[in-house]
Protein backbone atom coordinates (compact mmCIF):
# COMPACT_ATOMS: atom_id res chain seq x y z
CA UNK A 1 0.00 0.00 0.00
CA UNK A 2 2.81 2.40 0.90
CA UNK A 3 4.80 1.90 -2.30
CA UNK A 4 1.68 1.64 -4.47
CA UNK A 5 0.65 5.14 -3.45
CA UNK A 6 4.13 6.67 -3.60
CA UNK A 7 5.26 5.18 -6.92
CA UNK A 8 1.98 4.54 -8.75
CA UNK A 9 3.35 1.23 -10.01
CA UNK A 10 1.24 -1.74 -11.04
CA UNK A 11 1.08 -4.83 -8.77
CA UNK A 12 3.47 -6.87 -10.94
CA UNK A 13 6.16 -4.19 -10.68
CA UNK A 14 5.79 -3.98 -6.89
CA UNK A 15 5.99 -7.74 -6.38
CA UNK A 16 9.06 -8.01 -8.63
CA UNK A 17 11.22 -5.82 -6.36
CA UNK A 18 14.31 -7.63 -5.06
CA UNK A 19 16.92 -6.49 -2.56
CA UNK A 20 19.30 -5.76 -5.45
CA UNK A 21 16.87 -3.06 -6.55
CA UNK A 22 17.14 -1.24 -3.20
CA UNK A 23 19.81 1.19 -2.01
CA UNK A 24 20.11 2.75 1.44
CA UNK A 25 22.21 5.90 1.72
CA UNK A 26 22.90 8.54 4.34
CA UNK A 27 22.95 12.14 3.09
CA UNK A 28 23.90 15.34 4.93
CA UNK A 29 20.97 17.19 6.45
CA UNK A 30 20.31 20.16 4.10
CA UNK A 31 19.12 22.13 7.14
CA UNK A 32 22.54 21.75 8.78
CA UNK A 33 21.52 19.22 11.42
CA UNK A 34 24.06 16.80 12.89
CA UNK A 35 21.92 13.72 12.19
CA UNK A 36 22.30 12.47 8.58
CA UNK A 37 19.14 11.88 6.58
CA UNK A 38 18.25 8.36 5.43
CA UNK A 39 17.39 7.95 1.76
CA UNK A 40 15.93 4.70 0.37
CA UNK A 41 16.10 4.35 -3.41
CA UNK A 42 14.25 1.72 -5.43
CA UNK A 43 14.70 0.95 -9.12
CA UNK A 44 11.68 -0.74 -10.71
CA UNK A 45 12.69 -3.13 -13.48
CA UNK A 46 9.47 -4.97 -14.26
CA UNK A 47 7.21 -2.08 -15.18
CA UNK A 48 5.04 -2.22 -18.28
CA UNK A 49 4.06 0.63 -20.54
CA UNK A 50 4.81 2.23 -23.87
CA UNK A 51 8.50 1.32 -23.45
CA UNK A 52 7.64 -2.36 -22.99
CA UNK A 53 8.64 -4.63 -20.12
CA UNK A 54 11.95 -3.68 -18.56
CA UNK A 55 14.73 -6.29 -18.47
CA UNK A 56 17.51 -5.12 -16.20
CA UNK A 57 20.12 -7.07 -18.16
CA UNK A 58 19.03 -6.02 -21.66
CA UNK A 59 18.29 -2.29 -21.52
CA UNK A 60 20.23 0.78 -20.38
CA UNK A 61 19.89 1.70 -16.72
CA UNK A 62 18.77 5.26 -17.51
CA UNK A 63 15.37 4.13 -18.88
CA UNK A 64 14.40 2.51 -15.57
CA UNK A 65 12.34 4.50 -13.10
CA UNK A 66 14.20 5.14 -9.85
CA UNK A 67 12.33 6.50 -6.83
CA UNK A 68 14.12 8.21 -3.98
CA UNK A 69 12.18 8.03 -0.72
CA UNK A 70 13.65 10.32 1.96
CA UNK A 71 12.90 10.01 5.63
CA UNK A 72 10.41 12.51 7.05
CA UNK A 73 11.46 14.27 10.26
CA UNK A 74 8.72 14.08 12.87
CA UNK A 75 6.75 11.67 10.69
CA UNK A 76 3.03 12.47 11.27
CA UNK A 77 1.75 8.98 10.38
CA UNK A 78 3.96 5.98 11.11
CA UNK A 79 1.42 3.68 9.42
CA UNK A 80 2.15 5.30 6.06
CA UNK A 81 5.93 5.49 6.52
CA UNK A 82 7.71 3.08 4.10
CA UNK A 83 11.01 3.56 5.97
CA UNK A 84 9.68 1.70 9.00
CA UNK A 85 8.50 -1.27 6.97
CA UNK A 86 11.51 -1.55 4.66
CA UNK A 87 14.19 -0.98 7.30
CA UNK A 88 12.42 -3.46 9.59
CA UNK A 89 12.57 -6.12 6.85
CA UNK A 90 16.22 -5.40 6.04
CA UNK A 91 17.24 -5.50 9.69
CA UNK A 92 15.20 -8.63 10.43
CA UNK A 93 16.88 -10.37 7.48
CA UNK A 94 20.31 -9.07 8.60
CA UNK A 95 20.64 -7.85 5.03
CA UNK A 96 23.20 -5.09 5.62
CA UNK A 97 26.76 -5.93 4.64
CA UNK A 98 28.10 -4.21 7.77
CA UNK A 99 28.16 -7.07 10.33
CA UNK A 100 27.51 -4.82 13.31
CA UNK A 101 24.51 -3.11 11.71
CA UNK A 102 21.64 -5.08 13.27
CA UNK A 103 19.41 -2.41 14.82
CA UNK A 104 17.92 1.02 13.99
CA UNK A 105 20.04 2.62 16.72
CA UNK A 106 23.24 1.46 15.03
CA UNK A 107 22.03 2.78 11.67
CA UNK A 108 21.27 6.21 13.11
CA UNK A 109 24.64 6.36 14.87
CA UNK A 110 26.46 6.23 11.52
CA UNK A 111 28.06 9.47 10.36
CA UNK A 112 29.29 10.71 6.98
CA UNK A 113 33.06 11.17 6.75
CA UNK A 114 34.34 14.77 6.52
CA UNK A 115 34.51 15.98 2.93
CA UNK A 116 32.04 13.33 1.72
CA UNK A 117 28.50 14.00 0.48
CA UNK A 118 27.05 10.57 1.15
CA UNK A 119 27.51 7.31 2.99
CA UNK A 120 26.18 4.25 1.12
CA UNK A 121 24.98 1.48 3.42
CA UNK A 122 25.45 -1.63 1.23
CA UNK A 123 23.38 -4.81 1.35
CA UNK A 124 24.78 -8.34 1.26
CA UNK A 125 25.39 -9.61 -2.25
CA UNK A 126 24.11 -13.07 -1.36
CA UNK A 127 20.69 -11.54 -0.66
CA UNK A 128 20.46 -9.73 -3.98
CA UNK A 129 17.64 -11.93 -5.31
CA UNK A 130 15.55 -11.99 -2.12
CA UNK A 131 12.04 -10.57 -2.81
CA UNK A 132 10.91 -7.57 -0.84
CA UNK A 133 7.31 -8.81 -0.64
CA UNK A 134 7.22 -12.42 0.50
CA UNK A 135 4.67 -14.99 1.52
CA UNK A 136 3.93 -16.04 5.06
CA UNK A 137 4.36 -19.69 5.98
CA UNK A 138 3.36 -21.91 8.88
CA UNK A 139 6.25 -23.30 10.92
CA UNK A 140 6.66 -25.14 14.18
CA UNK A 141 7.42 -21.82 15.84
CA UNK A 142 4.36 -20.12 14.33
CA UNK A 143 3.75 -18.00 11.24
CA UNK A 144 6.92 -16.63 9.66
CA UNK A 145 7.87 -14.74 6.51
CA UNK A 146 9.35 -16.91 3.79
CA UNK A 147 12.90 -16.11 2.74
CA UNK A 148 12.50 -16.80 -0.97
CA UNK A 149 8.82 -17.20 -1.93
CA UNK A 150 7.43 -14.01 -3.43
CA UNK A 151 3.93 -12.92 -2.51
CA UNK A 152 1.33 -14.40 -4.87
CA UNK A 153 -0.02 -12.16 -7.64
CA UNK A 154 -3.55 -12.49 -6.27
CA UNK A 155 -2.57 -11.67 -2.70
CA UNK A 156 -1.95 -7.95 -3.15
CA UNK A 157 -5.35 -7.06 -4.69
CA UNK A 158 -7.12 -9.26 -2.13
CA UNK A 159 -5.32 -7.69 0.81
CA UNK A 160 -6.01 -4.17 -0.45
CA UNK A 161 -9.68 -4.99 -0.98
CA UNK A 162 -9.93 -6.36 2.55
CA UNK A 163 -8.19 -3.26 3.89
CA UNK A 164 -10.79 -1.06 2.19
CA UNK A 165 -13.61 -3.14 3.67
CA UNK A 166 -12.12 -3.00 7.16
CA UNK A 167 -11.64 0.77 6.83
CA UNK A 168 -15.29 1.18 5.87
CA UNK A 169 -14.89 2.37 2.29
CA UNK A 170 -18.03 2.40 0.18
CA UNK A 171 -16.22 1.61 -3.08
CA UNK A 172 -13.81 -1.31 -3.69
CA UNK A 173 -10.14 -0.59 -2.96
CA UNK A 174 -7.34 -2.15 -5.00
CA UNK A 175 -3.88 -1.52 -6.47
CA UNK A 176 -5.26 0.68 -9.24
CA UNK A 177 -7.03 2.82 -6.67
CA UNK A 178 -3.59 3.85 -5.41
CA UNK A 179 -2.22 4.16 -8.95
CA UNK A 180 -5.02 6.53 -9.96
CA UNK A 181 -4.61 8.43 -6.70
CA UNK A 182 -0.90 8.78 -7.40
CA UNK A 183 -1.57 10.08 -10.91
CA UNK A 184 -4.14 12.57 -9.70
CA UNK A 185 -1.81 13.84 -6.97
CA UNK A 186 1.07 14.26 -9.41
CA UNK A 187 -1.21 16.08 -11.84
CA UNK A 188 -2.28 18.52 -9.11
CA UNK A 189 1.27 19.15 -7.88
CA UNK A 190 3.04 22.31 -8.96
CA UNK A 191 6.37 20.49 -8.43
CA UNK A 192 5.66 17.76 -11.02
CA UNK A 193 5.54 18.40 -14.76
CA UNK A 194 3.26 16.53 -17.17
CA UNK A 195 6.34 14.84 -18.65
CA UNK A 196 7.45 13.59 -15.22
CA UNK A 197 3.94 12.35 -14.46
CA UNK A 198 3.89 10.40 -17.74
CA UNK A 199 7.26 8.84 -16.93
CA UNK A 200 6.13 7.81 -13.45
CA UNK A 201 2.95 6.21 -14.81
CA UNK A 202 4.69 4.89 -17.96
CA UNK A 203 2.29 6.72 -20.28
CA UNK A 204 3.27 7.57 -23.83
CA UNK A 205 1.54 10.95 -23.65
CA UNK A 206 -0.90 12.95 -21.54
CA UNK A 207 -3.95 11.71 -23.47
CA UNK A 208 -3.65 8.34 -21.71
CA UNK A 209 -3.90 10.04 -18.33
CA UNK A 210 -6.73 12.28 -19.44
CA UNK A 211 -8.77 9.35 -20.76
CA UNK A 212 -8.20 6.81 -17.99
CA UNK A 213 -6.94 8.54 -14.84
CA UNK A 214 -8.06 12.18 -14.67
CA UNK A 215 -10.81 12.75 -12.14
CA UNK A 216 -14.24 13.71 -13.47
CA UNK A 217 -14.94 15.50 -10.20
CA UNK A 218 -14.30 19.09 -11.12
CA UNK A 219 -12.18 21.48 -8.97
CA UNK A 220 -13.54 24.63 -7.35
CA UNK A 221 -14.96 26.19 -10.52
CA UNK A 222 -17.16 28.49 -8.41
CA UNK A 223 -14.08 30.17 -6.96
CA UNK A 224 -12.51 30.51 -10.41
CA UNK A 225 -15.65 32.04 -11.91
CA UNK A 226 -16.28 34.45 -9.01
CA UNK A 227 -12.66 35.41 -8.47
CA UNK A 228 -12.52 33.90 -4.97
CA UNK A 229 -9.74 31.99 -3.22
CA UNK A 230 -10.18 28.31 -4.11
CA UNK A 231 -11.07 25.98 -1.27
CA UNK A 232 -8.52 23.38 -2.37
CA UNK A 233 -8.42 21.35 0.85
CA UNK A 234 -12.20 21.06 1.07
CA UNK A 235 -12.58 20.13 -2.60
CA UNK A 236 -9.86 17.50 -2.32
CA UNK A 237 -11.71 15.93 0.60
CA UNK A 238 -14.96 16.10 -1.36
CA UNK A 239 -13.47 14.30 -4.38
CA UNK A 240 -11.69 11.53 -2.45
CA UNK A 241 -12.84 8.04 -1.50
CA UNK A 242 -12.11 8.72 2.15
CA UNK A 243 -15.30 10.79 2.46
CA UNK A 244 -17.27 7.53 2.27
CA UNK A 245 -15.50 5.92 5.24
CA UNK A 246 -18.03 4.67 7.78
CA UNK A 247 -16.76 2.46 10.64
CA UNK A 248 -20.35 1.29 11.13
CA UNK A 249 -20.55 -0.15 7.62
CA UNK A 250 -21.27 -3.91 7.93
CA UNK A 251 -18.51 -6.16 6.65
CA UNK A 252 -20.52 -9.36 6.43
CA UNK A 253 -23.92 -10.86 7.18
CA UNK A 254 -23.80 -12.21 10.70
CA UNK A 255 -27.20 -13.87 10.93
CA UNK A 256 -28.84 -16.59 8.84
CA UNK A 257 -32.06 -14.53 8.41
CA UNK A 258 -30.00 -11.69 6.91
CA UNK A 259 -28.41 -14.06 4.39
CA UNK A 260 -31.78 -15.56 3.52
CA UNK A 261 -33.26 -12.09 2.99
CA UNK A 262 -30.47 -11.16 0.58
CA UNK A 263 -30.82 -14.47 -1.29
CA UNK A 264 -34.49 -13.69 -1.94
CA UNK A 265 -33.72 -10.41 -3.70
CA UNK A 266 -34.38 -10.57 -7.50
CA UNK A 267 -31.16 -8.58 -8.15
CA UNK A 268 -29.24 -11.44 -6.53
CA UNK A 269 -31.20 -14.47 -7.70
CA UNK A 270 -31.31 -13.67 -11.42
CA UNK A 271 -27.56 -13.03 -11.94
CA UNK A 272 -26.71 -16.04 -9.77
CA UNK A 273 -28.98 -18.26 -11.87
CA UNK A 274 -27.50 -16.99 -15.11
CA UNK A 275 -23.95 -17.39 -13.85
CA UNK A 276 -24.67 -20.97 -12.77
CA UNK A 277 -26.10 -21.74 -16.21
CA UNK A 278 -23.05 -20.26 -17.94
CA UNK A 279 -20.62 -22.20 -15.79
CA UNK A 280 -22.44 -25.44 -16.53
CA UNK A 281 -22.31 -24.68 -20.26
CA UNK A 282 -18.59 -24.02 -20.20
CA UNK A 283 -17.91 -27.09 -18.07
CA UNK A 284 -19.66 -29.26 -20.64
CA UNK A 285 -17.54 -27.68 -23.38
CA UNK A 286 -14.42 -27.97 -21.21
CA UNK A 287 -13.75 -24.27 -21.67
CA UNK A 288 -13.31 -21.30 -19.35
CA UNK A 289 -15.03 -17.94 -19.46
CA UNK A 290 -11.65 -16.22 -19.81
CA UNK A 291 -10.82 -18.27 -22.93
CA UNK A 292 -13.81 -16.82 -24.79
CA UNK A 293 -12.89 -13.19 -24.18
CA UNK A 294 -13.13 -11.19 -27.39
CA UNK A 295 -15.11 -13.84 -29.27
CA UNK A 296 -18.69 -13.38 -30.60
CA UNK A 297 -19.99 -15.96 -28.11
CA UNK A 298 -18.51 -13.95 -25.25
CA UNK A 299 -20.21 -10.77 -26.44
CA UNK A 300 -23.59 -12.45 -26.82
CA UNK A 301 -23.77 -14.75 -23.83
CA UNK A 302 -21.37 -13.35 -21.23
CA UNK A 303 -21.31 -9.57 -21.30
CA UNK A 304 -24.93 -9.05 -20.33
CA UNK A 305 -24.96 -11.43 -17.34
CA UNK A 306 -21.66 -10.03 -16.04
CA UNK A 307 -22.93 -6.46 -16.33
CA UNK A 308 -26.10 -7.48 -14.50
CA UNK A 309 -24.07 -9.11 -11.75
CA UNK A 310 -22.01 -5.94 -11.38
CA UNK A 311 -25.13 -3.87 -10.79
Structure commentary:
The protein has 311 residues and is an alpha+beta fold. The protein is built from 14 helices and 6 strands. The protein has helices at residues 2-7, 11-15, 82-92, 104-108, 155-167, 175-188, 194-201, 206-212, 221-226, 232-239, 256-263, 266-285, 296-301, 303-310, and strands at 22-27, 37-44, 65-70, 119-121, 134-139, 142-150. The strands form 2 sheets. A 4-stranded antiparallel sheet has the order 3-2-1-4, with no helix packed on it. Strands 5-6 form a two-stranded antiparallel sheet. Strand 5 and strand 6 form a beta hairpin. Helix 12 (266-285) runs antiparallel to helix 14. The two termini are 28 Å apart.
Quick overview:
This protein is 40% helix and 12% strand. By secondary structure, it is of the alpha+beta class. Strand 5 (134-139) and strand 6 form a beta hairpin.
